[in-house]
Each structure stands twice: as C-alpha cells, then as structure tokens.
Amino acid sequence: MSTADKKAIKAKSKNLPQRKTSAQPEKDYERHFAFLQQNPARFQIFRERVFDQGVHPENFVDYECAFAAQTIQPLYPRSILDIGSYRHFILGLLAHYPVTTLDVRDRGPLLANETVLTGDAKNLTLPDQSFDLVLSLCSLEHFGLGRYGDEIDFQADQKAIREMIRVLKTGGHLIFSTTITRAKPAIGFNAHRIYDYSMLRDFCAGLILKDERFYSHRLKGFCSLEEITTDRQGWDVYCGCWQKP
Ligand SMILES: C[S@@+](CC[C@H](N)C(=O)[O-])C[C@H]1O[C@@H](n2cnc3c(N)ncnc32)[C@H](O)[C@@H]1O
User: Fold this and answer.
1) 84-108 pLDDT per residue, tens
2) Cβ–Cβ contacts within 10 Å for residue 95, how many?
3) In the CATH scheme, what architecture does the domain 60-243 have?
4) Fewer CB near the last or first residue (10 Å), C or N of the chain?
5) 7: Cβ below 6 Å to ligand 1?
6) How far is the CA of 160 from the centre of ligand 1 (A)?
C-alpha cells in the first residue's frame, strides 16, 4: 500500500463514528470479575484474562484471500477446482459456488456442493479442459517437500502448475498465491520454497496475465515488485490471476 493510500485510509477513519468501548477493561478486570461471580446467572464463572483491543489484525492471508475474492467476483465461474487453499476461504466460496477441492491431506466435505478429492497436485486424475477456474492459495511452494505427507519430488511445483493449466478450459483462469523474494530463490527445507519473480513468470509461460499483486510483510500491505524483500531467508507474497488463451 502506498503512503498516499495509508494517509487516505487514516483520514477516512477519522470521520467514522467512534465505537464506545469500556474505558480500561484491564484495570477494571477484578471489579467486573467479582461482579460476575456474585451474579453468575446461568453461567459458571472462571478466570480467563484476554484483551484483544485495538485495530483488528491483518496479515498476508487476508490479502491473499482479498485478491482471490476480488478476482473471482467478476468471473462467475461455473466450475472451480481448488488445490490446497485455505479451508475457511473455500467454505465461504461454497456459499456461492460448487467447488471441487483437492488436497494431499484427507478431509471430509462440509457442504453438499463440495466434491472432495484427496491426491497429489502434480498428478491430477482429472480430464483436460474441465474447469473454468483453478485456484491455489499458499500451496505451490510446499508441493513435493514432504511437509504435508506428500512424496518428495523437487520438481512437484512445476509438474503441479502444468497440471493446473492442463485441466483449465480455454479462456479459464488460474488464480494462485505463493512466496516471492528479490534475493536468490531458496528452499527452506522442508517448510517451503521461496521463488523469484522470473520463476513465477516462467511457470505461467503461455498464459495471459490478467492481474497480479505483491504483499510485503514489512509494509503490511500490497506493494510494488521493487518493495519485495531482499532478506536472504525472508519472503513476501505473490498473487496472480492468469488466463488460458
Ligand atoms: C499452507 S497450506 C494452505 C492452507 C491450508 N489448506 C489451510 O486450510 O490452512 C498448504 C496446503 O497444501 C497441501 N499440499 C501440500 N502438498 C500437496 C501436494 N503435493 N498435493 C496437494 N496438496 C498438497 C497441504 O495439505 C495444505 O493443505
């Protein structure tokens, strides 16, 4: 997010009605606790001090999900394949669309319009040209490293991208997010790979770029490619939407 954007959000939030909060909940805790003990109504009362005040926390996951939601919104895909993305995001998506989900870790369908497949992303047992949208958030960088119980295969990420493109219909979209750095690409074995921009562009050779965004942990928001980390073992986030011609 640019400094101008941040200033605009700050200025906007100044005009919002301020929510009334209890003045000093930490300081008043004992008094409120004693009151509850004397007036428990139908509850049992025990101590569990937690204070999560202030601005609601956001992290890279929020930005990846926001990118995916924003890019899916105008597409109205009739068939969606998800590979490994955040379960909570997919459950939200299922409110609007049937989704076929594939992950190497087994899980049950939680809604009737979810078709659950358990398998390895590098070898999809699905026909060519079968989905309008293939989605994969925060997963590519893990494939083939064994972290999630899949077979060790250091080319699994390249194979999986080829498979995602194979099962996409002509005109369909591939939306994915993954790690990115401006330092030398790296494998933090066995947690994840960290790609550079040229590797990600190579993965998508032959596809048409529709939109891409970068998230910086340092800036806590979307940023330009030039603002991506150069820390040797650090990583930021790439989000891309590509169309199969
Ligand atoms: C960082 S997690 C993504 C978020 C996670 N699904 C959640 O709901 O929190 C990476 C996901 O990729 C899946 N995965 C890892 N290797 C895989 C493979 N080779 N094929 C398919 N899925 C794989 C993992 O099981 C995991 O769910």
Assistant:
1) 999 999 999 999 999 999 999 999 9
2) 8
3) 3-Layer(aba) Sandwich (3.40)
4) C
5) no
6) 12
